[in-house]
Design brief:
This protein is of the alpha+beta class and about 300 residues long. The protein folds into two domains: about 5-160, Ribosomal Protein S5, domain 2, CATH 3.30.230; about 160-290, Alpha-Beta Plaits. The chain is built from nine helices and ten strands. The strands form two sheets. Strands 1, 2, 3, 4, 5 and 6 form a six-stranded mixed beta sheet that branches. A four-stranded antiparallel beta sheet has the order 8-9-7-10. A hairpin with a 3-residue loop joins strand 5 and strand 6 (about 155-160). The two termini are about 25 Å apart. The model has no long low-confidence stretch (mean pLDDT about 95).
Length: about 300
C-alpha cells in the first residue's frame, strides 16, 4: 500500500525554562515558553501486517526501534484506546533531530504519530490528545505544534504566543545528555524547591516586532537547568558562548535539558550564515540554521 502523507515532527525549543518546584511524586513543576524550529523529523504511515517501526536519516543509528520507541508506543496506545489493534500500521521515521539533545525529538515523533493515525483511522483528535500526557512530559506541547506557554508537569498549556519571523540557530556538540540525570543534578543543588521565587511570565502582548524585541522580552528569563547541565557537560558553556558570539546573534541559551543551545537572529538567512560559520569553526559539532516552524 502506498504510504500516507509525510508528517512533520518539528523540533521543540524552550525559549526559557523555569523550574518552580517538585511534586511529592517526583515530577517537576515547570514554566516555559516553547517554540518549534523548521527542523523536523518526518514520518509516513502505511497499513501493515503488524505494528512496526523503521528508521532512517542522520540520527537513526543506535536508536531503539523496538517497543521502547515513543512513536511505536503512541501508535499502540491510540490503537488500544480506539479498539483498532486489528488495523496495525508500519511507521517509517526519518530522524533529523539529534536525540537526547533538549529538542524533544522523541516526543515530537509520538505527537505526530498520534495526529497522523487519528486522521487515518477517523478518530476524533481529542482522543489522541488525551493520550499525550501519558507518553511523556513534552508530548502534549509537541501535539500543539505552535508557540505556547507550558506549565505544570507539561500538561498545562496556554496561552498561545505570537512570535516574530526571526531566525533560529541550533548547535549541539554531538553529546547526548540524559534528561533524568540533568534533573537529578538540579535536585542535588535545589532539593524539592525551584531555582528561586516564581517569576512572572514575559509579556508578549503586544507581540514582539522582531528578534531583538523578543530577545529583550526574554532577557529577564533563564533556563534553570543550565548549571546542572554544565556540571555534567561543561562543553555546553562553550557552545552557548560561541553561539552568542556569532554575528547578528540577539540571544543565546540552552534548550530543554541540553546539550543543544539556540541563537536568535534577525532572519533565517542570518541564522543559516551563523550555522555555517560555527560548523566551519567546530566541524565535529552539529549545527542547523533556519527559522521557526510554520504553525499547522
Amino acid at each position: 500500500m502506498t504510504p500516507g502523507p509525510v508528517l512533520e515532527a518539528p523540533a521543540k525549543v524552550n525559549l526559557y525554562l523555569h523550574v518552580l518546584g517538585r511534586r511529592a511524586d517526583g515530577f517537576h513543576l515547570l514554566d516555559s515558553l516553547v517554540a518549534f524550529a523548521g527542523l523536523a523529523d518526518r514520518i509516513s504511515l502505511t497499513r501493515a501486517a503488524g505494528f512496526e517501526l523503521t528508521m532512517s536519516g542522520p540520527f537513526a543509528k543506535g536508536l531503539d526501534a523496538g517497543e521502547g520507541n515513543l512513536a511505536l508506543k503512541a501508535a499502540r496506545a491510540l490503537a488500544e484506546a480506539a479498539g483498532l489493534a486489528a488495523r496495525p500500521m508500519a511507521i517509517a521515521l526519518e530522524k533529523n533531530i539529534p536525540p537526547a539533545a533538549g529538542l524533544g525529538g522523541g516526543s515530537a515523533d509520538a505527537a505526530a504519530v498520534l495526529m497522523g493515525l487519528s486522521k487515518a483511522w477517523g478518530i476524533h483528535e481529542a482522543v489522541a490528545k488525551s493520550l499525550a500526557p501519558g507518553l511523556g512530559a513534552d508530548v502534549p506541547v509537541c501535539f500543539a505544534q505552535r508557540p505556547v506557554f507550558m506549565a505544570g508537569v507539561g500538561d498545562d498549556l496556554g496561552p498561545g504566543a505570537d512570535l516574530p519571523d526571526a531566525g533560529l540557530l541550533l548547535a549541539n556538540p554531538r553529546l547526548p545528555l540524559d534528561t533524568a540525570q540533568v534533573f537529578a543534578a538540579f535536585d542535588a543543588e535545589h532539593g524539592t524547591g525551584g531555582a528561586g521565587d516564581e517569576r512572572p511570565r514575559p509579556g508578549l502582548d503586544p507581540a514582539p516586532r522582531d528578534a531583538q524585541a523578543l530577545a529583550e522580552v526574554l532577557a529577564a528569563t533563564a533556563n534553570d537547568l543550565t548549571e546542572a547541565a554544565l556540571e555534567l557537560a561543561p562543553v555546553v558553556g562553550q557552545v552557548r558562548a560561541l553561539v552568542s558570539g556569532l554575528k547578528g546573534c540577539r540571544l543565546a541559551r540552552m534548550s530543554g535539558s541540553g546539550a543543544t543551545c539556540f541563537g536568535l537572529f534577525d532572519d533565517a538567512a542570518a541564522a543559516r550564515a551563523g550555522a555555517e560559520a560555527l560548523a566551519a569553526a567546530k566541524p565535529g559539532w552539529w549545527c542547523w540554521g533556519g527559522g521557526f516552524a510554520e504553525p499547522p
